[in-house]
What does this fold into?
Amino acid sequence: MFALFVSLALLGLSAIDPVGIALMPVLLMQKHPFKRSFIFLGGSFISLLVMGLLLAKVFGLAVLHFEKSHSWLLPSLETMAAIALLSIAGTLFWRIKKKQLSVEPPTRILKRLQLGNRHLFIAGGLLVAVQSVLDVVFVIAMVRIGQLNLADVTLTAAVATYAVAALIFQLGVVLAYRLSPTEQRTATLDKVHNLIGSYADEALLAVSFILGCLLLALAAGLTS
It folds into this structure.
């Protein structure tokens, strides 16, 4: 069981979200920066938790039963996920070479960040909900833990472990801002923005490539 939680934590850490991280300096420059940052992150956490539990509960056992009579299902899904991740890595590599990538948050999200706390909470949840549906690794991981038929408390703790790990970089930005001397906080946020612009896309490319290769290897092992 410990290995399951460690695996989910590592998987969550690999779910790098440059847009979500780039939003944190925007929130931290507003009034009541810590309150609003945690409201946004709260929406993100609840969304990840709900999406994960829905995938695990609704699809976990259903896929397991179907899988027993269709042994090709799991390796096929993992192969598709691997191709998707490698395609993302290839696209990122091409766009990085062309210098066409940007980590600036979408204008619609930025406008939502200027609204009240309720809308801020919803914005955090919607952003993560869309990303989690598109994240094939997240979907497969949640379905797989749903197949383990865990007790509700254990399942919730497992999904929560992934959710916390997936948000750890955003939390790190808030912590760095909180621990910085007041006169250096603006400089700290500038450094965060520069780091995102310099390395986030390369990190996402590397993670996508590594996970894609691992899924291909796993799929090949299941079919051999």
User: Anything to note?
Assistant: The mean pLDDT is 78.
